[in-house]
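INTERNAL AUDIT FORM
Audit reference: QA-55
Scope: verify that the stored structure record matches its stored sequence.
Auditor: D.O.
Record contents follow.
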Amino acid sequence: MVSPRVALAPKVQTAIAAVLGDGYRDADPVLRPSQFADVQVNAALALAKRVGMPPRDLAAKIVEALDLDGVCDTVEVSGPGFVNLTLSDRWIDSLLGAVTVDERLGVPAQTPENIPIDYSAPNVAKEMHVGHLRTTIVGDSLARTLEHLGHHVIRQNHVGDWGTPFGMLIEHLLEVGEDSDEAGLLVTDPNAFYQAARAKFDSAEKAEPPGSAGDFDVRARARVVSLQAGDEATLVHWQRLVDLSKAYFNKVYRTLGVTLTDADLAGESMYNDMLGAVCDELEAAGIATVSDGALCVFLDGYTGREGRPVPLIIRKSDGGYGYATTDLATIKYRVAELEAHRVLYVIGAPQALHLNMVWDTARKAGWLPDEITPVHVQIGNVLGPDRKILKTRSGKPLRLMMLLDEAVEVAQGVIDAARPDLDEQTRARIARQVGIGAVKYADLSVAHDSEYVFDLERMVSLTGNTGPYLQYVVARVRSIFRQAGLDPLAQRAPVAVAQPAGRDLAKRLLDFPDVLVAVGSEYEPHRLTGYLFELAQAFSAFYESCPVLKAETEQVRQSRLTLSALVLRTMVTGLDLLGIEAPEQM
């Protein structure tokens, strides 16, 4: 562990225990960065009231007990009771030396946990729209980061692949032919296929006299019954629908550069055989009761208008099951079969009430032990320039592939203007990396539960807090090593941080482990984007004031090359954890 704050923590804890006794050996030292020093200790403020001592007096006693020879140049009390620590250059150099030879850049491998992550979740036979963007890329970034921290991540793509619409979809597929051009729309334009099936169903249902427009509606309803009963021929046709949709999903996932595969599909159909048992078990335990013909769970603390209890309906009055039943089966499966320690649900913020009711029901049933934590990673909306949910001009949800294609097109214009010297194929490859990276970075750089305005022109800018700016900094570092004829991964020379810009860059490099640990515990990818932007800015300042290839001595040159190589490794690793590619040149 090489983070200065982590390395200092036991030293500060030892000093606190020396002042207050061993009972305070585990006191949180509360170490933070400060504009006045490298590290600020806030322990005195937190502890003073507990021990009945003025904060500055307690801070002074902690300073006296601190053993920081060779670690800090100055240690002083400031403000109402802070302890400011200014690290020595030599100690920073030693920490960087450890990072240089560490393949993990100082990031600790945590005790492995099984962590299912529920994200993306499109619907079979329907187009993925802009609403799927955030849950897909936020979930994927969290999956990558938690895996990097040493956990066993189980991706769960909870696709909508079951229910009453599949009766009309299967019948429409059979009418047009499973190998027809129209069936191919499930891969290229799923909405068109779905709308054609819906129009056919509605027309038949509304026809007067009944049957005058054919019996499509009758056959569709019968097909639903066959599907739910497990009819073998119907399941074959259903599987064909799913397979065609999988081809479409995979096209979107490849374009986005996310890690979801067919092996990660865990749709609603997977839990179908569990639903009856879920209802029976809850009813037998007295947790679920029949109300107006439906089987419901009424939980304390969940009330609606006029204080009326809000039901969690697990079996409808017609005997059918809904999302609540499936989600109860899902959490039961993830705990019992996947042996989850934590379960993340990366889905829209409006689902908070539903999820909390499902989890509280599962806890009451004994399916979700207290030591297992379900987490709702709430996803906010993507807005248009009018600050309303981003849609097409006709008011329909914006197709995700259309959005991504437009991003690449805009990026192509930027790259064509900036690098006319590159061949067309190279510019096209860079434009794809920049366009997709720009969309992902703009999304991930905002707190996942916040809204943001989608602005492609700003997103693809090569300046400011954008994905392309970070990609450009990576390309700049790679250019330095190409000019030097050196392999950045083999650069291991000692670092000596003499100039302020080099010192600032070094400290930011050493913060990388802390940032990833925070992302893994708080589920906030925007912490990583913010860190990478600050690191990129620190490198730009370093590059401007500290010549690398034209340094005054070979020793200084090698030191600066090592710093640059660490920036490259950190930036590439960080961008990869965000799911963003780092072009070789820009």
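Auditor finding: record pair retrieved intact. Residues 4-87 form a domain with the Gyrase A; domain 2 fold (CATH 3.30.1360.70).
Action required: none
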